[in-house]
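Re: [ENG-882] Designed sequences occasionally contain unexpected residues at chain ends

Forwarding the minimal case from QA. Structure tokens:
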């Protein structure tokens, strides 16, 4: 790992522990020999991915560990004002790994089909964020087999629209950032997408999948990492029960977003604790420069 090479070459180094969090187990167990390198005098500053981890490692290492935010969130904050409060949009994130994305995509569709009889959802925008691994021809094939109707769209070549009873969905390729920013909440079977949603104070509804990545175990670990605003139907008898419980969660979250101001305030407070605030990269660079100048 990079810290080993820096230590081996007797060079000073800074570390950002993006992959490790004390939220997983309550106390971070660093893999050997990471602790040895981090205790080295060559380790000038350590940055954690959340406040709990920073406090935990400060005690463990007996040296200051800082939480200044996460650079992978920085690109979203300057554009977060794009959210339109007059419309209710839900982002649909089936992941990015092929062929797992196929199973995830279909499972999310099954949830949407089960709630399509409810006229209320006619008012809501459902936007899929799809990667190139899932082609438009495959998407069309899936929808056709499941009895969805294609809606003609002449304005945007990067968009497919389909309808099932009262419900419409939009399919976008390589447009994740825009979809996330305009979403009020998300239905997710993905890793980083859920982190970034929580980091923007948007509640996430998980659907546990078959994997190999987004399994029941992965989803449970993600809830520990990101906190109580990741909601999941985790105790279900069969797929139908899972779908029905997930629909109840979707309705509950929409209700809380629209009618409970304290809920969204709490979501934003959680976001700051778990992922941090804007300009994390600049804060880290400025902090490093101070250390270098004072060394």
């Amino acid at each position: 790992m990079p810290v080993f090479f820096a230590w081996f070459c007797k060079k000073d180094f800074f570390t950002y522990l993006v992959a490790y969090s004390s939220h997983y187990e309550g106390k971070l167990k660093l893999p050997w020999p990471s602790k040895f390198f981090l205790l080295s005098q060559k380790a000038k500053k350590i940055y954690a991915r959340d406040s709990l981890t920073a406090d935990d490692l400060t005690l463990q290492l007996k040296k200051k560990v800082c939480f200044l935010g996460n650079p992978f969130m920085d690109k979203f904050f300057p554009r977060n004002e794009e959210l339109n409060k007059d419309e209710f949009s839900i982002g649909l994130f089936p992941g990015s790994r092929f062929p797992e994305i196929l199973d995830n995509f279909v499972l999310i569709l099954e949830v949407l089909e089960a709630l399509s009889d409810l006229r209320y959802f006619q008012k809501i925008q459902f936007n899929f964020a799809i990667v190139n691994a899932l082609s438009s021809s495959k998407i069309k094939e899936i929808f056709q087999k499941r009895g969805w109707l294609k809606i003609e769209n002449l304005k945007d070549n990067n968009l497919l629209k389909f309808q099932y009873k009262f419900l419409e969905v939009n399919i976008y390729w390589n447009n994740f950032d825009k979809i996330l920013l305009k979403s009020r909440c998300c239905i997710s079977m993905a890793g980083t997408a859920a982190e970034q949603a929580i980091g923007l104070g948007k509640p996430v509804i998980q659907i546990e999948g078959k994997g190999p990545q987004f399994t029941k175990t992965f989803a449970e670990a993600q809830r520990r990492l990101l906190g109580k605003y990741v909601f999941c139907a985790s105790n279900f008898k069969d797929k139908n029960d899972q779908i029905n419980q997930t629909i109840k969660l979707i309705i509950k979250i929409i209700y809380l977003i629209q009618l409970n101001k304290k809920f969204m305030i709490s979501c934003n407070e959680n976001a700051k604790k778990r992922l941090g605030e804007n300009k994390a990269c600049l804060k880290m660079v400025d902090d490093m420069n101070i250390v270098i100048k004072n060394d």
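QA comment: On inspection the terminal residues look reasonable. The chain is about 40% helix and 15% strand. Proposing we downgrade this to a documentation issue.
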